[in-house]
Amino acid sequence: MTETTLFDASYEHRKKPLLTQTLKRLGPIYSKSELNALRIDGMSREGLAQRSGRGFVNRDILETVLGNLLECVAPGSHNAPHLEHQKRELSEAIEEVADQLYAMVAQSFLAVTDETHLDAALETVFSLLWELPRFKSRALWNRFASLKDPAVWDAYLLHNGISREKLAAIDFRAQIDIAIQERTFEPYQDFLGTLNLASVLDYQLQLVGSTYPGWRVLFYHDVAHALTRSDAPEESPNIQRVPVPLLPRAISELGGRYYQADLHPETQIGDANFLEHPHRGVTTGQTGIIGSGCVIYPCTLGGLSVKVKQRHPVIGDFVEIGTDTSLLGPVQIAEHSTVGTNTEIYGFVETAPRCRISSSVVIGTIRGASEAPGKIYIGEGVRIGDGTVIENTSEMDLIIPDRSQIPARSHVANDGFGFPRYVV
């Protein structure tokens, strides 16, 4: 395929039925106000056909396309293009985005001299567009989850008559988690109503949408992750897709460049998550899994093994991970648990639900006399105090019983029978 035939008659013929099906699906997800706010920046076909380097898509084009996709899930949040470039009708907007995506996907295959998948490139593009309703919902819930940040009660709201002392006595996070679990804003809205604060939600969502970076980088990840998949999207009309080379990693790299959040495109991430201060650095790995409803401060969710296997952490739902924390290897943190600031957990470590691991804690499995140390199991509801060290060098698993309370600055090892021993 040459530059001049990137958008040939065959492409237009194959695109038409896919576009018709996709528009029928997408039309109902936009309100009239969203359609009025939608701004899609157009590009010339000649510009889209231009390659850079060894044939891969131009990075400037990639930035434009990601901005347009962001507009598709949160109209009015990103673009303000010149009027002559603006696509006013939804059909024009989605067709423009489809052309832009196709240029990137097709050229990604060409860059690795793989023309066998060019026929699948167009369906791969429409597989991604078919998922826009899901992406739109995920982006909204990620914005809503950001309301867990107490800073959304900013100087503007405080100046308009809301007492800081009154706010300090209210647990807003619990109400937000209830809304996330029930998948409706109503519990939080009703709660605000009982405080005569019903108008606050719209302002806070606008504040997050306009200024918070976490939900944006999570959307970039949604796009990159979708381009790594080969399964058909739900309810799709026989649309097939194939994993795209290069492009998912390029999207991930741009997210890192903009927001210092290095989310590997193959990491599985739920929604309704709040990335707090991602500019300080958030790293996830290829085989990592993150649930829904989490609060994640700058941290490293990395690997230890160089083997192609599950080598990154698995994080459950409603987990909070503190600043400068490192979880390394196949660590598993169960739902409703907290990992405190500056804590390091590595190796074969698994917690049960509702654990509270405090700050500056070190927990790990160590290769000592045994080349294959046992795991560390931390039971349900365990409380681990600041500065504690828990290590297992034994072949036997070390089990911390349910609801144990380990005092601050303790040193815990395996007694040789799988039970905790406090080292003096």
Shape: globular
Per DSSP, the total helix count is 14
CATH class category label of the largest domain: Mainly Beta
Strand order of the largest sheet: 3-6-9-12-15-18-21-24-25
Under the CATH scheme, the architecture of the largest domain is: 3 Solenoid
Reported for the largest beta sheet, the result is: 9 strands, mixed
Low-confidence stretches: none
- How many β-strand stretches? 25
* Beta-strand fraction estimate: 15-25%
Defining traits:
UDP N-Acetylglucosamine Acyltransferase, domain 1; alpha/beta; 424 residues; 3 domains; nine-stranded mixed β-sheet; globular; seven-stranded parallel β-sheet; 14 helices
Q: What does this molecule look like?
A:
- With 424 residues, the protein is α/β, with parallel strands linked by helices.
- The protein folds into 3 domains: 3-138, no CATH class; 150-211; 285-422, UDP N-Acetylglucosamine Acyltransferase, domain 1.
- It has 14 helices and 25 strands.
- A hairpin with a 3-residue loop joins strand 1 and strand 2 (56-57).
- It is globular and about 75 Å long.
- The model has no long low-confidence stretch (mean pLDDT 92).
